[in-house]
Amino acid sequence: MRKANWPFYLYSLCAILLFACQDDNDPEITPSGNEDTFVGAQHVITLRDETEDFRYSGFTCTMSTEDGTIITRKGEHIRMEGKSILTLDTGLKKGIYRFLYLTTPIVAEAGADTTWLEYGLGCRVEISEVDTARVLDLYNKAMKLSGSGTEEDPFIISSSDHLKRIRNVANDQTKNNLLLPQTHFSQTADIDMDKASWDSDHEFGWLSIGNLPNNPFRGIYNGNGHTIKNLWAKRENSAGIALFGYTEKAILKNIRIENPRMEGNFAVGALVGGAVSAGDNRDKTSLFNCTTREGYIAASDGSVGAGGLVGEVDTYGMILLDSCVNVSTTVSGAYGIGGLLGVGSLYSQSYLQRCENHAAITSDYTGAGGLVGSVDSLFVVGCLNTGDITGARAYNGTDESQGGFGTGGIAGGTGVSYIYASYNRGNISGHTGVGGLIGSTRLGSDELLFNNTLVKSCGNTGHVDGESAVGGICGEAQFGCYAVYNTGEVTAHAQNSYVGGIVGNSSIAVVHNALNTGKVSGQNAESAGGVIGKTTWGAIFATQNFGDMNVNANYAGGIIGLAGNYTMINYCCNTGFIQNGGKGPTGGLVGEIGDPREWSAMNIVSCVLGSVECVLGLLGPVIAVTGEALEKATTTAGKVFGELVHVLHMAETGADWLLVITDKVILREGIVEMLTEKETELLQASLDAKVSEIDTSVKTEMESLRGGLSLAAGLLPSGLDAGTLPAYMGNLSKVLTFYETSDDNNATINYNINHKREERYEHIEHSKHIQEIVQKVIAGACICVAATAAVASGFVTGGTSTAIALTAIGSVATIIGGANAIIEGATDYQNNAVIISQCVNMGKVRADNSDRVGGIAGHLQQYCLVKDCLNAGSYEGSSRKTGGIIGRGDSRFGMDRCLSVGNRWGDPMEHSSGDFPEHSDLYYYDTLYPGIDDNSVNYLRGLSIDELKNPGSYRNWDINGANSRWHVTESAGHFPVPHHSEMEEAIDDGN
Known about the structure:
The structure is a single chain. The protein is an alpha/beta fold. Helices cover 17% and strands 36% of the residues. The protein is built from 12 helices and 79 strands. A 14-stranded parallel beta barrel has the order 18-21-25-30-35-40-45-49-46-41-36-31-26-22. The protein has a 14-stranded parallel beta barrel with strand order 24-28-33-38-43-47-50-53-51-48-44-39-34-29. Strand 7 (124-127) and strand 8 (133-135) form a beta hairpin. Mean pLDDT is 82; it is low at 1-33, 596-602, 604-674 and 766-830.
């Protein structure tokens, strides 16, 4: 016969009699500000293992009802024979209640302040009509949590005490293996971590869940939109400082962090300190719909890797942030400081989509970004920054070991990167490599080597300010872009600096459909451009500058300040006022272009074309982020980067950017392997919508900026009609429509850019030698791994006084052949395959200290060709050493089918030239140059105002046909403008 449990029954009977004798008018415990409608007859609740460690008599129980209302009940507790009897002062009516936690006062000694102990519960209790209470949830004694840890029955987190219990498991090496990637946790209530942080250590605060890299948190944590507030830690000499110190194969979603106050030295964040990867595995940590607001993340002197949500991604690690926002949590530190993510180590990959930062971000030295500080491979889609970003605030420019590179609105420094459908609206300031979206892809401190970045459908409206390599979109990189615009002011301060409305300094610039309206300034610049400060090689198409430029530079141009050999410029336009107080070449579109033999070492920037193949070969497949839009975007990235190589006629590299495209099977089993099918579908649909929205917004804004343009008053000579500008803008719109209509059209334009360059080779004596030099440059720089802010592989353990960085955040790079081969490849080159075609200047120019000033180009090196170009802009200075099309052309340069109708130029075409120039079919407005005798040359003729509007006046011009390169409206005061781009023409390559 079973022995009677008489003490239990005795206590229960007493409890029943006690509450039967209570006055019915006893005060009720009510929810804050609301009437308690949950009062009932059930006073006694029996719990078992859930309260095995609770040893106190009095308590207050906080619970949630089925409709989410939070209520409290005071009561008494007794523990006997493995059971806890909770007797509530005020009973509960029928329903299901989730008991969140118990609190009880603790007085350590007489006279001491009372502290409150919080004991987590998390279980659901069902109150039935027959006045019985039943616990509905299982309890896991190993984890000390309600639930079983499955997707259907996750571990319940309803108290700061539960987070401590997870920590006890994670930080215990013998128990850490209880945390599996498939272990589910579900937060069911808001949690205040202030007391829990104090309990961890009264001085240093919260000890992270997974406080060592070898004991990381694994699993799927769903915050369900609840907050975790007032988390704090003051561990300025430690690493892995966050709610979760280190994570591995973890998914964190729907978590709201409020008022974090986190201080550490390495891998510091509000939610995750460091995302680790075991060995050389591609382990992932993913964050979905997580936010942080208020408070701060502060990394100490010499620190590395601080982010609003995540501090660092380990070597070989992968991280995805989707729909994550830093609302107002400021982030500061020394190296690699980001609004969401601080640092990505060598070989790491970072993916951010639909993420935002609105907080101020500050770094002492290298790497400050609105979303990421400094990472290796980066993929960003549909993101926004509005916070002000300050980089390299402690860097004085003299100690190169500290470094001051990389400050950007989206990313400070990166390796190979792709930024699509994203905006920056914050003000950006830094030292070297400062950009509205991306700062620098520089490899370490070596000025010769940059990595590739592609920016598509993006815009910047913030001011961008730095010392050198400053751009409205990108500071310095091997740069490609399509459909990008900048409206913010761009300023460079340093001696010999580079500054551009879109990109400051680029080894390769493939810039298609870019627009700058921001003012460009640089009073000590080496090279300044309305779009590109300087590029070694480039392909510039359908790009405009409407912004004014006020610089004191060695090279200045409305589109490009200084461009090297192998550069093609087609269908570009400047309407800004280009003012240069320096003595160097200045042009409405280009300052100087061609032969780099006289360039300084800083101007010779290597083209790291081999880096793509090498980096992807080491990294393995790059996993794309979920969503059809992303799949399309990634495919587009592959095509565009492929075209970047193709346009530059460098197939010898063998770089195949289509390696970026990932099989859907890898995708499904990769980053989103723990998402449900419904979650994945919602993610895809939402991302598609976001990308489409931003893509359309960028296009609309660019169309609006172009449509709202008007010529400066009095720019055109008397009698000429300003209506030619909208006619030209209409033609530009048609060209861009052709470009975007199909992949075939896109391929046609890129093919023609290459083909026209090859045609030019036929006119250059040493074309075969050119090809050999190109190959030598490629062989001279083969980068195996790269990141602007590379952090040593492996994390620093907690308590270490300083974080380990490689040569002050320098990168590890293997350079095959060495810098000598690079410089040799760039300098042993005498002839230039350069073409400027169908370009227009309708802006003012002033450069009185220079003798090489032109409406289109200031200085053409030998063999450069200008054709089918129009200058309608005016010269506003006092110098007469100016040319309506070019200022100076060196030996064997060419100028064909150009028209100059601009005011006050010293000469209608060129001011001076070298030996054996090639000219044909050039025209000017005769009213401006009454003293010129057209009979003295057979290639130059002045036209009257009536002849200007007559297409028959232009001998050997392709004009006024359906697909002609030129078109003129046959009305008084009109003159020809470029019509269809020659790059639209189908060309038979003879195969």
